[in-house]
Amino acid sequence: MPLDFTAIDFETANSSSASACAVGLARVRGGKVVANAGWLIQPPPGHDRFFELNTGIHGLRAEDVVDAKTWSGQLGDLAAFAGADVLVAHNAGFDMAVLKRACAATGDTCPPYRYACSLQVARRVYELDSYRLPSVAAEAGFADFPHHDPLADALACAHIMIDAARRVGASDIEELALAAGARVSRIRVDEPDPVFFETPVPSVAAA
């Protein structure tokens, strides 16, 4: 099977996982990025206050999303882009929690996506001092991008997985996860949000 997946990255307005204010997506087919998209989102009511801490990270404010679609309004666009793909994110526990919690806040059904974490994969495949997205992406050959721009982050995540698959000789996401001692999980709304611990683990491939 080919290396097909959709990389995703959310930014949030505040400390609530439901406060999605922007998303970036990158579609990979056969180990190559073939499409990308990103847009602003009005966070769900009750989760729509923008904290200065978050604004300081991604630069977005309440006035930037006034004309954006609501979470419910954009969910169909997100689903149409991702299709039946496995979603991949760097520290996927955060992004999957955004999906779950924003849907819960608006009463929308959360799509039961399968997902994998490029942070988990990176900790097994690369030997680095830091496994933050910019450091890992640079090692994968995707450097000097505007970190915390969700589209740029999604593209960085996609390139990490493409490079990691090449290094371990994996032809699809399942093979890559197996080779990296990671896992492909599924969003389940009746379970606690996924959490990935950033503890060092041995590498399985040389840089």
Quickly list its features.
single chain; 207 residues; alpha/beta; Nucleotidyltransferase, domain 5; globular; disordered C terminus
Please provide a written account of the structure.
This protein has 207 residues and is α/β, with parallel strands linked by helices. It has a single domain, classed as Ribonuclease H-like superfamily/Ribonuclease H (Nucleotidyltransferase, domain 5), CATH 3.30.420.10. Helix content is 36%, strand content 19%. A seven-stranded mixed sheet has the order 4-3-2-1-5-6-7, with helices on both faces.
State the oligomer. single chain
Number of helical elements:
7
- Structural class per helix/strand content? alpha/beta
Task: Estimate the global geometry from the Cα principal axes.
Answer: globular
- Radius of gyration equals 16 Å
Secondary-structure map:
Elements: E1 5-12, E2 20-29, E3 32-42, H1 52-58, E4 69-70, H2 71-82, E5 87-89, H3 92-106, E6 114-117, H4 118-125, H5 133-139, H6 150-168, H7 173-179, E7 185-186
Helix pairs in contact: 4-6, 5-6, 6-7
Describe this structure in a few short sentences.
By secondary structure, this protein is α/β, with parallel strands linked by helices. It is built from 7 helices and 7 strands. The chain has one domain (5-186): Nucleotidyltransferase, domain 5, CATH 3.30.420.10.
